[in-house]
Amino acid sequence: MASIHRISTRSDFSRTLKKGVRVSSRDLLLTLSILPTRWPDDTGRRVDVATSGGPWLGLIVSKSVGNAVTRHLVARRIRAAFAEVMDEFPTTDISVVVRALPSAGEASSVELAEQLRKALRNAKVRRLAAEVLDASRSISTESADGAL
């Protein structure tokens, strides 16, 4: 997974964790936040004008998962699983923070990818995606009607 797809700043982590939807699985706790496509943004999810190259992934792998070797292994597995399911996201304007639970130390990449897929099919995620995408479509049709 390319570094352009990684969440690396504290503000991006905070925004996703505060404004996102939480979905849990056996080994992972995901927080997903879909960024609106219009500017200015009334929801406060999009604070910078120029964002591109999504979806974005942030990882939280604490010491409860294991020693440094185990934590890095889990982080690599989650990144590989994320790269595998990237095309299945409802939109590219999405930030995902994955918190690895202690049991993630024993999970394989295949299991983690399946858990990510299942989380993306969760009703909360689909509802959030529909709300954000419908809002952006209605804004674009309103602006198109105003231009006529």
Description:
The chain has 148 residues and is of the alpha+beta class. The protein has four helices and four strands; from the N terminus they run αβββαβαα. The chain has a four-stranded mixed β-sheet with strand order 1-2-4-3, sandwiched between helices. A hairpin with a 3-residue loop joins β1 and β2 (28-34). α2 packs across α3 (109-120). It is globular, with a radius of gyration of 16 Å. The model has no long low-confidence stretch (mean pLDDT 80).
Number of strands: 4
Helix and strand run:
HEEEHEHH
Q: What general form does the structure show?
A: globular
Low-confidence blocks of residues: none
Beta-strand share of residues: 15-25%
Q: Structural class given helices, strands, pairing? A: alpha+beta
Share of helical residues: 40-55%
Strand order of the largest sheet: 1-2-4-3
Distance between the termini: 43 Å
Mean pLDDT equals 80
Count of DSSP H/I helices: 4
Q: How many whole angstroms does the radius of gyration measure? A: 16 Å
The biggest sheet, with number of strands, parallel, antiparallel or mixed sense and barrel status, is: 4 strands, mixed
